[in-house]
Each structure stands twice: as C-alpha cells, then as structure tokens.
Design brief:
- The protein has two domains: 2-205, Transferase(Phosphotransferase), domain 1 (Orthogonal Bundle), CATH 1.10.510.10; 210-345, Tumour Suppressor Smad4, CATH 2.60.200.
- The protein is 21% helix and 18% strand.
- It has helices at 2-13, 44-50, 72-76, 83-99, 109-118, 133-142, 154-162, 184-187, and strands at residues 26-29, 36-39, 195-197, 220-222, 242-248, 251-258, 262-266, 278-279, 294-299, 302-307, 314-316, 319-320, 327-329, 334-337, 340-345.
- It has a seven-stranded antiparallel sheet with strand order 4-6-5-15-14-11-12, with no helix packed on it. Strands 8-7-9-10-13 form a five-stranded mixed sheet, with no helix packed on it.
- A hairpin with a 2-residue loop joins strand 11 (314-316) and strand 12 (319-320).
C-alpha cells in the first residue's frame, strides 16, 4: 500500500490524475530482493475519455469500468475527476488488502454501482479482528462519497498512513495486512525473478474465517434499558453476523443474534413442534408474526431479506416486501414483521448521524 501511495504521489505531482487502479493494472515485480509495486496506468483512462471512448462490458477491456474498483464520480458521470478520485481507489484497495474482501459487491454491476455510490463504508474490524481505529479513520476519509471531503491527494493520505502505529504481537499473531508478508510456501520462491499481477480477491472470503468461535445457533439476548452504544454490551468476540433489535422509546430492550448466513424469522408453533431461528413469540403480543415470516441471508458482503408469504406482510422501511423477492438489508434499516418493529444492525458499524437542515 505504501508503494502504491508513493507512486500516485509522484503522478499527482506531475499533474496525472484519474487513473485506473484495478488489480490487473497493478503488477508486483519480485526480481530484486524487495518486491516492487508498479502502477501500469499512467493516464490511459483520461486519454480514452478524452478521445470519446465508450467502455465495453468485457472485463479484459483496457477501458472497462469495474464498479467494484471505481469511485462514485466514475460511475455516476459528470463529477469532477482528480487526485481525490485516485485516493478513493486507494481506499478500496486498502480495505481489500486488510479484510480479504471488497466493501461493495452487489448481485450485478448495476447494483454494485449503486452501493458504491450510496452505501455506508463497512467497518474493517467486522472482518479483520483488532483493526486499529486510526486505520478505519483513514479509510473513511479516503472513501467518503463527497470528493471535497477526502484527502486532497495521495501525499496527504500517505502521510496519514505513515503516522499510524500498528499494534505488534509476538510470533504468528503479529498484526499485518492481508498478503503483506510472505508465507512459508512463498519463501521458497523469493529468489526467483517474476513479475505478477496483484492478487485479486474475486471470491469473497467467508466471514466465518474472521470470527472467533463457531456459529451454530441464534439466541435472544436481553439488554439493559439504558441509552448508549448497545454494541458494547456484547462481547467483542461474539460470533454473529448481525442483530435484530427491539426498541422501546428509542432504547434497545432486546437483541436477537444472527449467527448463521441463512436464518428464518418467525414464531414458535408448539403443536407442530416448529421453531424458527429467530423466535419473536415473546415480543409478538398481538400474534401478527407468522410461523415462518421472513428470511435473512448473508451473501458475499451484504444482507438480504425476503418475505416468506407471511399473512401480515414484511415491511422494510416504508416498502412492503413482495413475497419471495429479496431486498437489500442495510445497517440501521427498520423491519416490521406484522406489528413487530425491529432494527437491523451490523456489529461494529456506526449509526448514521442525523443532520438538521
């Protein structure tokens, strides 16, 4: 990451900006003792745009616009492109190098573009345990949707990165970025001269690999009725993907852990001996929740919710869900199962602040 930022710093000093930082355009030269990172795009995208080039949908096209690695201004179009656009791409690569996954991946290119342009930045600590908060702060400054609020150029981002003191541990527990140090299998090839494409994570690394402990069940956890950061009431190592929270007068009163990638939300039926993964019986006084009311799935980097033909419907915010049609579920979304109101939350994800106009 340091070498990429240094390379961009030189380009920005020469007036070159708006480059393409997809992994296939970043090579690692290991001819020498120390690996050297090389940025292959030195203004090709800007040249193609100036010539009126229209990108095709082929991934191997030199001008292909991959929404997974693009800043919002590339995707939306019409925005002012500059060094801040490259800073955003550095942020995407930083997230991928640390967590082993990309922050925004939808079911298709269009959905990925929407998420990249509007989605909240995930917390890296959700995927990489003990990620320093200072590193998350750098990421958020690099990847804010408003270009004028980002680092002005690569030099500013590089200075912030170099000011961070990473925690160090003894032995194999030393904190490092994903792929930052060679493994034992790589050491045997250290002396061989090769130039390779930067490793790209196309298939999402399972979240379970970054969680401590195993996840086999979903439980309801009572929470003291005190206002504050409810995430702190849970152990930091709790093996959960997300929460459904019941609130009263803005205060969380009960939390249901989502500890599997596919869970059913509903109520218990003692006569048929049926019990869903998340049982809302205790908070469904009006009995408006169906036995199998809704399903929540975790796919790639995102959550989806779908109604399971429930009698009293499932609502996501103001949207009444079409049965069996999945909808994107994001941190802070309000979900109604019948008359039961729940708030969906992701561990270590900050609540979006409310601004008065």
């Amino acid at each position: 990451m340091r070498q990429m930022a240094q390379g961009l710093k030189v380009m920005h000093e020469q007036g070159i900006a708006g480059v393409d930082l997809r992994p296939q355009l970043i090579t690692v030269d290991s001819v020498t003792v120390t690996d050297r990172v090389q940025l292959d795009d030195v203004g090709i995208r800007s040249l193609l745009n100036g010539l009126g080039y229209i990108s095709s949908q082929r991934v191997d096209d030199i001008g292909f616009l991959d929404p997974r690695y693009s800043p919002p201004e590339y995707i939306i179009g019409g925005g002012h492109i500059g060094p801040w656009s490259d800073v955003y791409q550095l942020g995407l690569l930083l997230f991928e190098m640390i967590t082993g996954r990309l922050p925004f991946v939808g079911k298709n290119a269009a959905e990925t573009g929407v998420l990249q342009s509007t989605g909240s930045i995930p917390r890296m600590a959700q995927y990489k345990h003990n990620t320093p908060p200072a590193l998350q702060n750098v990421l958020e400054c690099a990847m804010t949707k408003n270009p004028s609020a980002r680092f002005v150029n690569a030099a500013s981002m590089l200075a912030s990165l170099e000011s961070i003191q990473l925690p160090r541990r003894s032995g194999s527990e030393e904190w490092r970025m994903v792929g930052n140090s060679p493994t034992s299998s790589d050491e045997g090839h250290a002396a061989v001269g090769v130039t390779g494409e930067m490793q790209r994570v196309d298939n999402d690394v399972a979240l379970s690999a970054t969680l401590i402990g195993s996840s086999t069940s979903v439980s309801a956890v009572p929470v003291p009725a005190v206002q504050g950061d409810t995430a702190r009431t849970q152990p930091e190592t709790a093996p959960v993907y997300g929460y459904l929270c019941c609130e009263k007068d803005g205060v969380e009163t009960q939390r249901f852990d989502i500890a599997k990638k596919n869970v059913i939300v509903g109520r218990t039926d003692p006569k048929r001996n049926l019990s869903p993964d998340i049982d809302l019986t205790a908070i469904d006084q009006k009995m408006t929740v169906s036995r199998q009311h809704a399903r929540i799935r975790y796919e790639e980097t995102f959550f989806y919710i779908e109604d399971l033909k429930s009698r009293n419907k499932t609502r996501l915010g103001e949207l009444t869900l079409v049965p069996l049609k999945p909808e994107l579920l994001q941190h802070g979304d309000v979900v109604h199962c019948g008359s039961v109101r729940l708030v969906f939350k992701v561990p270590d994800m900050r609540d979006t602040p409310l601004f008065k106009i």
